[in-house]
């Protein structure tokens, strides 16, 4: 996430709204100069690069934009330790050998290097290879162009604002089913409702437009600042959700953000057409949880087949929701349950989802809730369709809950 001071320097305030100073085509010349300058440091140490910080580029450029672009470039072209040896072990061996009476430094380095199967020069290079300043700069990727760096930088600004939000409202149309499922897969605390052809809705203190169309939806997401725990992890998940908006025909995101040190919140608006996309597709949600659970089912519940596929749940139009998997009995295919793996949650969030299931009479849906991802204090509601677990979900607990 961008540092607060760096973020603030690339914002302007219009009323109660912050507007990012996005990079545009006019910034491409100095972005190319920045990339060329960084390419010169490939293979050199991070301390050498940092010694050149502040040196003006060969092309005139706004300082605040250069600083934020350079910060993004640091993440895209990182510095890494290159030694195959463990620096701590190298130091211990050298110091131990040097403790011998009348030890000659050159001879000690030569002997220790020989014992490790490396040259004295490689040994010297590895001696302090774990220090931050000794890391080596990677090469600039061939596909990292000024336009890509501009989009990456603009996305970083938008993501930093969203990660400092208490609430996010999104209205969208076009491929919204994939958008909603992405939110569920990331485990975001989210209320989703269809909008039909509605055109306006109140958000916070103002009115925001809603993209029209029969497939229009609204997503009300909790921001990281609304949680008591997991704010950093949740913030990363929320930021990684933003690229999914690019697949929509039209969208508007309104976030209530805390930028300064005071308690005041300000509004940030991101709309379709803003220059924050085009650099990368939305990454797939993590599947390691699914892999572990599928393996556990194959070992402990072989009579049941666990099929991971998104299934839209018919909640009678009250809320859009998905099940992540379907549990089917191999001998009796009519015996089946839908499983919903709840990510981050609050007590209010769980209660709302359970009410939707009850109202729609979806009695063969089981919400699997990790207690470690609780967002607020308070006891979760008691409900026959709610399964609580900590860290690892046991198939036997699922079967016991459904009475199998």
Tally the helices: 13
**Average pLDDT across residues?**
84
Relative strand content: 15-25%
Number of domains: 4
Look at the helices and sheets and give the structural class.
alpha+beta
For the terminal residues, how far apart are their CA atoms?
46 Å
Helix content: 25-40%
Could you give the order of strands across the largest sheet? Answer: 1-2-11-10-5-9-6
How are the secondary structure elements laid out?
Blueprint (H helix, E strand, L loop, with lengths): L3 H5 L2 E4 L2 E4 L7 H12 L6 H6 L11 H14 L2 E2 L6 H12 L6 H12 L3 H7 L9 E2 L8 H17 L2 E9 L2 H10 L4 E7 L3 E4 L2 E4 L6 E7 L8 H11 L8 E8 L8 E6 L16 H13 L3 E10 L7 E9 L6 E7 L4 H13 L5 E6 L15 E4 L5 H8 L2
Parallel strand pairs: 2-11, 14-15, 15-16
Antiparallel strand pairs: 1-2, 3-4, 5-9, 5-10, 6-9, 7-8, 10-11, 12-13, 13-14
Helix pairs in contact: 2-4, 2-8, 4-8, 5-6, 6-7, 8-10
Task: Please explain how this structure is put together.
With 404 residues, this protein is α+β, with helices and mostly antiparallel strands. The chain folds into four domains: 4-81 and 134-149, no CATH class; 87-129; 163-271, Alpha-Beta Plaits; 288-402. The protein is 35% helix and 23% strand. The chain is built from 13 helices and 16 strands. It has a seven-stranded mixed beta sheet. A five-stranded mixed beta sheet has the order 12-13-14-15-16, covered by helices on one side. A two-stranded antiparallel sheet has the order 3-4. A hairpin with a 6-residue loop joins strand 13 (321-329) and strand 14. Helix 2 crosses helix 8 (146-162), helix 5 crosses helix 6 and helix 8 crosses helix 10 (231-241). The longest helix is centred in the middle third of the chain and has 17 residues, at 146-162. It starts with a helix and ends with a helix. The model is unreliable at 197-212 (pLDDT under 50).
């Amino acid at each position: 996430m961008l540092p607060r001071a760096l973020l603030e320097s690339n914002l302007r305030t219009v009323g109660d709204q912050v507007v990012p100073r996005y990079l545009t085509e006019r910034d491409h010349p100095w972005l190319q100069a920045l990339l060329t300058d960084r390419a010169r440091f490939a293979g050199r140490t991070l301390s050498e690069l940092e010694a050149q910080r502040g040196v003006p580029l060969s092309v005139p450029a706004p300082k605040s934009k250069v600083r934020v672009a350079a910060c993004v470039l640091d993440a895209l072209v990182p510095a890494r330790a290159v030694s195959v040896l463990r620096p701590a072990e190298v130091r211990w061996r050298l110091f131990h050998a040097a403790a011998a009476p009348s030890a000659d430094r050159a001879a000690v380095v030569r002997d220790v290097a020989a014992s490790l199967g490396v040259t004295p020069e490689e040994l010297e290079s590895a001696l302090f290879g774990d220090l931050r300043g000794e890391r080596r700069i990677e090469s600039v990727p061939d596909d990292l162009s000024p336009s890509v760096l501009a989009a990456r930088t603009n996305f970083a600004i938008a993501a930093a604002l969203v990660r400092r939000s208490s609430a996010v409202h999104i209205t969208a149309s076009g491929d919204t089913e994939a958008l909603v499922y992405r939110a569920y897969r990331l485990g975001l605390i989210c209320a989703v409702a269809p909008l039909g052809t509605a055109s306006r809705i109140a958000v916070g203190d103002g009115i925001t437009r809603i993209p029209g169309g029969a497939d229009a939806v609204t997503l009300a997401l909790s921001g990281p600042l609304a949680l008591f725990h997991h704010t950093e992890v949740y913030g990363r998940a929320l930021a990684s959700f933003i690229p999914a908006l690019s697949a929509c025909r039209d969208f508007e995101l309104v976030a209530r953000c805390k930028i300064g040190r005071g308690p005041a919140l300000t509004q940030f608006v991101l709309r379709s057409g803003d220059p924050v996309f085009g650099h990368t597709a939305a990454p797939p949600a993590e599947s390691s949880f699914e892999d572990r659970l599928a393996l556990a089912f194959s070992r402990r519940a072989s009579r049941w087949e666990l099929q991971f596929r998104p299934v839209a749940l018919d909640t009678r139009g009250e809320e859009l929701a998905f099940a992540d998997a379907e549990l089917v009995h191999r001998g009796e295919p009519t015996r089946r349950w839908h499983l919903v793996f709840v990510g981050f949650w609050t007590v209010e969030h769980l209660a709302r989802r359970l009410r939707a299931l009850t109202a729609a009479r979806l009695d063969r849906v089981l919400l699997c809730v990790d207690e470690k991802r609780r967002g607020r204090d308070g006891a979760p509601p008691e409900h026959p369709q709610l399964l609580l677990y900590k860290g690892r979900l046991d198939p036997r607990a699922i079967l016991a809950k459904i009475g199998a």
